[in-house]
């Protein structure tokens, strides 16, 4: 399928999920994340979900990271330049929703991209080769290209893999893993 078709399909599937489904599936994903070989790393980048888009609730993964004493990094996006600025999440971090309802840090201690060792990546769909379809702005692809080659990229999805995303572009960055409530895909 093409990314445009996948975006439509998965937005529709997500919209049919109840609040209880969202919580249950997000918790199942967090439990699967525990099995990943990532826990010796220190710097973890995570997205804060757009609740209006029914994204995976990353609160459960945040609790895991916090409990394991990891450095947690969240970002602020500039949609004009497609740049992300990364900040350390602390008890003092103020979060505010931007024009797309994305919860973002207002400011804080900036962290260079080169420090980030693990990235949890939002997506709408992914395929069996590790390609993903996001919202189509290219912000995450640009960010992931700036990361070190050793940075571990983990997609989070309520749904299982598609066979193949047909319109993969040169700038698309593949995932290393994708975690669903039922499975951990390794690419």
- Overall CATH class: Alpha Beta
CATH superfamily: NagB/RpiA/CoA transferase-like
Count of individual helical segments: 4
Query: What pattern of helices and strands is seen along the backbone?
Result: HHEHEEEEEEEHEEE
How many strand segments? 11
Model regions low in confidence, pLDDT < 50 over at least 5 residues: none
Mean pLDDT: 96
Q: State the separation between the terminal residues, measured CA to CA.
A: 19 Å
Binding site for ATP: 3-7, 132-140
Organism: Flavobacterium nackdongense
Family: Belongs to the 5-formyltetrahydrofolate cyclo-ligase family.
Cofactor: Mg(2+)
What's this, in brief?
The protein is α/β, with parallel strands linked by helices and 187 residues long. It contains 4 helices and 11 strands, in the order H-H-E-H-E-E-E-E-E-E-E-H-E-E-E.
Fold and architecture overview:
- Substrate binds at residues 50, 55.
- The chain has four helices and eleven strands, in the order ααβαβββββββαβββ.
- It is of the alpha/beta class and 187 residues long.
- The chain has a single domain, classed as 3-Layer(aba) Sandwich (Rossmann fold), CATH 3.40.50.
- A seven-stranded mixed β-sheet has the order 3-2-1-6-9-10-11, sandwiched between helices. A two-stranded antiparallel sheet has the order 4-5.
- The longest helix is centred in the first third of the chain and has 15 residues, at 19-33.
